[in-house]
Specification:
Elements (H helix, E strand, L loop, with lengths): L1 E7 L3 E8 L3 E7 L17 E8 L5 E12 L1 H4 L2 H17 L7 H16 L3 H14 L22 E4 L4 E2 L9 E3 L1 H9 L14 H18 L7
Parallel strand pairs: 3-5
Antiparallel strand pairs: 1-2, 2-3, 4-5, 6-7, 6-8
Helix pairs in contact: 2-3, 2-4, 3-4, 4-6, 5-6
Length: about 230
Amino acid sequence: MLLRSVDYGEADRIVTLLTERSGSVSVMARSARKSAKRFQGALEPFGVIDAEIVLGASEVGRLGSARLVRGFPAILASLPAMAIAGRALELVRDATPPRESEPDLLEAVIELFEALCARPDESARVAFVIRYLALLGLAPQLESCGKCGKRPGDGRSSLFDPASGSIVCRACGGGPLLVPASTRALMSQSIDDGWTRSLATWTHDDVITADEVLDAFIGRHVPLGKKR
């Protein structure tokens, strides 16, 4: 799956791909701009491709061939869906570790695209970000206080502390971000497999609150663009 494409020289491109076997990889696509037939339109966004990749000691490998095996025309036909998908892929591009086998990451992106084809809503992006961070082992702690381990009571709002990356009970000092119980429940559900099932129940306020929590958390705890 294409994450980034940068023109190189007179006819080549350096493309960043999300792969099943090697995580995020950068490869040289020779003559990609000169011959439209060589890669059969596969080097376009929002599609699943079958690619022949050669990786060596160099940071940039070689793309031998690529063909589109699944497209998502409903995304390409919707400006909101394209914008939401593009914003989600920014995290995928910047947070995915290079050349590490994590096949579930690609599956999560495909699930996002499927969700956006059915309903182009920001809730899909927010829930996806939580799921993707969980697959990377970087999800925020939402089930219990990060300091004492106490779980919030049913229906009780929580306080999130970006510095610790977790909710923190008032007895332990709390945190600056108030998270309603309903929003925390939706965010917690998004961590696990089957994260798309509750998308229709997200409200606008849930999305706004979750976005605020995630932005603060990612800024402190996710090494964007860096090797882990």
